[in-house]
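User: Here's a protein and a ligand (adenosine-5'-diphosphate). What would the complex look like?
Assistant: Let me lay out the input and then the predicted complex.
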Amino acid sequence: MPFASPENFAKQTVASIQGYSTLSWRAITNLFSRPRYWADVYTQMDSIGVGSMPIVVLTGFFTGCVLALQSATSLQAFGSVSLTGNLVALSMVKELGPVLTGLMVSGRNASGMASEIGSMKVTEQIDAMRALGTDPVRKLVTPRLYATVFMLFFLTILSDTFGIAGGALVSVALLGLNGSTYFHNSYRALQYGDVVQGLTKPLFSGFIIATVGCYFGMNTKGGTQGVGKSTTQAVVVSSVFIIIVDLLVTRAMIGIFGR
Amino acid sequence: MPEDIVSADTQQKQGDAGSSEPVVVVEGVSITFDVKPVLQDISFTVQRGETRIILGPAGGGKSVLMKLVNGLMRPDTGTIRVFGEDVTRMKEKDLFMLRARIGMVFQESALFDSLSVEDNVAYRLHEDRVPEEEAHQRVVEALQFVELEHTIAKFPPELSGGMRRRVSIARAIIAKPDLILYDSPTGGLDPITSTTIVDLVVKQRDVTNTTSLVITHRLQDAYLLARSRFNTETGKVEPIPNDGINDTTKFLVLNEGKVVFDGSTQELVHTTDPWLREYLS
Ligand SMILES: Nc1ncnc2c1ncn2[C@@H]1O[C@H](COP(=O)(O)OP(=O)(O)O)[C@@H](O)[C@H]1O
Ligand SMILES: [Mg+2]
């Protein structure tokens, strides 16, 4: 790609932001008018939710394991290894569960959406859809958006659960801690604000994954090569967005709940 | 909602059935991509029942013109009226209703890869919530028209290029449109398959008298279209006797974004324009 002049670059950026905002807005509001494509919503829920389960369970579980190991080493210095459960639960629920699940699903589904919609775009299937009287945003983007937000919420809970379970396994098997103390501490560590924070994040991440994936898909140009490019961009942009928004949400939640 | 569309649609059909207004009116249309002017000041009209062949070298803007007519793109300047409605200024939502009367065959077929042939052809019927039995019946009829009944359960990637093109034609005609847009229906096909596709276009033209736009860059196909007719008795497409020419078939020749010819087959054959003579020879 040749270097664009600063003026053109600014223009393109503004145009992209405008395009992205319009797409997101239309994707959200489409649910409030007919026709609605429920069958597509369920298909997407299956592909995003059920399909991502193994990867989310595995990453959650092993993250919990490694968290227990790491925190036990640090806690040993203060002679409070028994607090491992607290640390694992707090880190998983507030931060690692939501963010890792978001990143994993972004890698799996933002790319999937960008490449699927991108191929439809370059083979004129999107235009064909419009020619047949269907709004592609309604048919393709809206179901993906709602399915992702809904499923990511539950995937995050799943990841948190397996993370805490992984931590328990390591604590009991390797660190020789008492299992019931671990769970008791984990449970006591979590306060209302922590859970709200941990469950607000996937709502944002789900929104980012679906809208960014679909945006890059819908704006694919230049044949199969273009599809590859959109796919990569979708994953990169959605991953970065997820982490930035994670920071913003964390800051806002600390402001609200004080922790 | 779908019922509303259908009833509004039939009212419209009745409303303008008797009028003699042209189906497509293109006036002073120009469009530029980046810095490249693709169409410059294009004007032409297509009358009811007319078959308009759009000829011209590749890259001349024929596909862009067809997408403009269907409201899939908007021109920089100029107006396009289809069934009397200005598609260059309509909202996308209203365009969806207008497009219920327009069937389009895309250059590369543009079938939905994830749907079976049956679901592809029935797409519009499913959108309109036509009952399953009736939809199936109509799909079978449409596939019989293009002689592909046996592919009903297959998926597009399993079909040859010519078959995909025919399925695409079936999808475009299933809702009995009042205007059919064929974008290079014979493009990239071998001569024999091309002939079967041209025969389908002729059959559709002579059986239903639907107004249509047909893009091609192959002169043989264009002439074949102008010189053939569908014989309802034998059910076959045959050359019009005594070197006759179908008089509803007209030509529009585009080159480098400009109209170089607009008229009947006779006029095209006897043109004196040097570029056109060169192109036709
Ligand atoms: N969406 C688009 N964006 C940019 N350029 C386009 C677009 N569509 C078509 N063009 C350009 O317009 C020109 C005419 O294309 P087209 O209408 O497909 O020609 P043809 O007469 O072969 O169908 C080509 O040079 C093509 O690159
Ligand atoms: Mg073309």
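Summary: The radius of gyration of chain B is 19 Å.
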